[in-house]
Write a structure and sequence with these properties.
about 25% strand, about 45% helix, alpha/beta, two-stranded antiparallel ribbon, 11 helices, 9-stranded mixed sheet
Length: about 300
């Protein structure tokens, strides 16, 4: 009975499906099914109730799961103590980045890799940290906005301010809004949230301002490109448009308007399910990401 097979079993339980566990371990789904079947044969016990739509633990499976958590924690603690003495961290870390944030985060990740050259980073672009952390079996994921999953550990790392912006060409053609009351008369570019809702009510100066969306999209990158192309006024995270503001591809609209601030979070599963390498990167990101506030202010 291999430790990795036991970890695979606990990952299936945590993620609730063979497919998600396969994504987490980067192996075919059929291999997960086979490993669980082999484990059940060795134990002479059925661990899961399987249907076409759901997967749940049997009584034996539940008892085995909690005992395995204790055993694996002991093994991981022992390994962690040895790894602390060994400065050469090894392994692969699967990390989810939000769209249009890579230019800011890349230097931090590269600095971490320079400190630990035997670490492999498997970086994915994601839209929603909560959904995709488990769906893709990520070790770490960034998330912006509200928290809604208590089974995930969340650490606040940055405040993200949204800003009203437009291209100089758009303002030259359509005029510059002089107050928030002018915004509904302008074309706006609005984000469509993963739940399907369109973000066409913007919180400005403590008021809810309903705008006129001429373009809606669930891709922040598409929204930024459309704003640069002069298709309307965007209400975009400042972290995403830092370079474009410096290059004057975008300019502030109603710059002194008090706008909405979202929180950026670092998400990960419980620490006892992660490798020493992943834990070390979490500590590193938690320390370094807040420094991005100084970059945005410059």
């Amino acid at each position: 009975m291999k430790i990795n097979d036991l970890k695979l079993f606990t990952k299936v339980v945590e993620l609730g499906s063979f497919t998600a566990a396969a994504n987490a371990f980067d192996i075919p789904r059929g291999k997960v099914s086979r490993k669980i079947h082999e484990l059940e044969i060795q134990l002479n016990a059925k661990l899961f109730h399987r249907t076409t739509r759901s997967l749940s633990l049997t009584n034996s499976g539940e008892a085995y799961y909690y005992e395995m958590l204790k055993a694996l924690e002991i093994i991981d603690t022992a390994s962690h103590k040895i790894n602390i003495r060994n400065t050469n961290l090894k392994g692969k870390i699967k990390l989810g980045l939000l769209p249009e944030t890579h230019e800011l985060v890349q230097p931090i990740l590269f600095a971490f890799q320079d400190l630990h050259p035997e670490i492999t980073l498997d970086v994915r672009t994601i839209r929603n940290g909560f959904d995709e952390l488990l769906e893709h079996g990520l070790d770490i994921a960034f998330h912006g906005g509200e928290l809604y999953d208590s089974n995930v550990v969340a650490k606040e790392v940055l405040n993200i301010k949204r800003r009203l912006v437009a291209s100089p060409d758009y303002l030259a053609q359509h005029g510059t809004p002089l107050s928030i009351e002018d915004l509904p008369r302008h074309a706006s570019i609005c984000f469509r949230w993963p739940n399907g809702n369109v973000d066409n009510v913007w919180k400005l100066n403590g008021q809810n301002v309903e705008v006129n969306p001429k373009l809606m999209c669930n891709s922040p990158g598409f929204m930024k490109s459309a704003t640069i192309a002069g298709r309307g006024i965007g209400y975009l995270p400042e972290v995403m448009i830092h370079k474009e503001l410096k290059q004057r591809k975008l300019v502030f609209v109603l710059k002194d308007t008090e706008s909405e601030i979202d929180k950026a979070w670092l998400l990960h599963p419980p620490l006892n399910t992660l490798t020493h390498a992943s834990r070390t990167l979490i500590d590193y990101l938690t320390k370094e990401i807040p420094s991005l506030s100084e970059v945005l202010a410059s």
